[in-house]
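Me: I'm a chemist; would you kindly supply a protein sequence with its structure tokens?

Assistant:
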Amino acid sequence: MFFKNFKIDKAYKDGILDASVIGMHMVSGPAVGYGIGWVLEKYAHTGRTTTMICLALGVGAGILNVYRDMKRLKRKMYESDDERNDQQN
């Protein structure tokens, strides 16, 4: 079969995994923030404002995580480019 002989480069596989984590951070941050706000609203009898504040904090946390992931990916990309250039020279 075709798939038995199909080999994926490790750097390519790591890049796909890192990109999927970025998507999960964009979803999980706001979801957790909304969940915490909903629990506080329901059981601590706070207003709807608490849910919106927690949602905003969750969105901010998601964006911060994406920023950190992109910074790490950029650093890995530059390091691999430097290694490839060193091998060619």
User: Anything to note?
Assistant: DSSP finds two helices and no strands in the chain. The mean pLDDT is 85. The helical segments are 10-43, 48-88. The CA atoms of residues 35 and 51 lie 8 Å apart.
